[in-house]
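Run log // design_07
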């Protein structure tokens, strides 16, 4: 089985009901995309987006709690995401690792909870600029993969997104060789540990735009993208989907 191709959008804390018009535009312009398309809107928009897209795009959450229910004000359980219409959930995004001090251990527990609820976990890893400059990138990615990916991960229930922290929202991207090096490492580490590593969809994320998408998608072991800013407008996300 070849890895699936996935164009994933992360709307972060952007959008109200009016933003769902972008879904109509996206579906009108790309009625039969050649890849799987996923959008992870704020939690308030998951149900209406799922209803609006009627299965033509997948909808996901941006985080979930490791527990199934209980006294966790402001948090969302994986089964609740699923109930609202999600098929996926982004976990371990660098903004959560930074803003909420999430650890690999917590990301791993959340991913296991997502699997238990029947969600595909999109697990994010990535080095900071300081770590890259210090020559630590491959060690950081190896450690995050080992720590954040649960033992039950398979190519069917898990997607890995390589997102260098310094490339997110900055307009800067690694060179093709740098992306290729990390993706080859991830493929090798997943294969060594989980067996079906060759089948995992590996995404690149960090300042993907219509103008650089085709070049990024041509890099070995890149099976798609996790897109932040450029996923908010159909006129930007559409060409990225078309390039995949
Ligand atoms: C992200 O936050 O996952 C991301 C990749 O953001 P951007 O595309 O805006 O760099």
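design_07 sequence
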């Amino acid at each position: 089985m070849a890895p699936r191709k996935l164009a994933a959008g992360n709307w972060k804390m952007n959008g109200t009901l009016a933003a769902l018009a972008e879904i109509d535009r996206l579906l009108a312009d790309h009625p039969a995309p050649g890849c799987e398309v996923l959008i992870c809107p704020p939690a308030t928009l998951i149900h209406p987006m799922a209803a609006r897209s009627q299965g033509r795009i997948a909808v996901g959450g941006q985080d979930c709690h490791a527990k199934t229910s209980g006294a966790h004000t402001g948090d969302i359980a994986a089964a609740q995401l699923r109930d609202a219409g999600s098929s996926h959930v982004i976990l371990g995004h660098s903004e959560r690792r930074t803003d909420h001090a999430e650890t690999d251990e917590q990301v791993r527990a959340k991913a296991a909870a997502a699997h238990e609820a029947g969600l595909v976990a999109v697990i994010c890893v990535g080095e900071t600029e300081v770590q890259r400059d210090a020559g630590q990138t491959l060690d950081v990615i190896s450690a995050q993969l080992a720590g954040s990916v649960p033992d039950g991960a398979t190519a069917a229930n898990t997607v890995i997104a390589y997102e260098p922290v310094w490339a997110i929202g900055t307009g800067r991207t690694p060179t093709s060789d740098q992306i290729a090096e990390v993706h080859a490492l991830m493929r090798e580490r997943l294969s060594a540990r989980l067996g079906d590593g060759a089948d995992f969809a590996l995404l690149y994320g960090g300042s993907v735009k219509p103008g650089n998408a085709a070049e990024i998608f041509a890099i070995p072991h890149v099976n798609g993208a996790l897109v932040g800013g450029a996923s908010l407008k159909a006129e930007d996300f559409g060409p990225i989907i078309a390039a995949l």
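Residues 191 and 197 are 4 Å apart (CA to CA).
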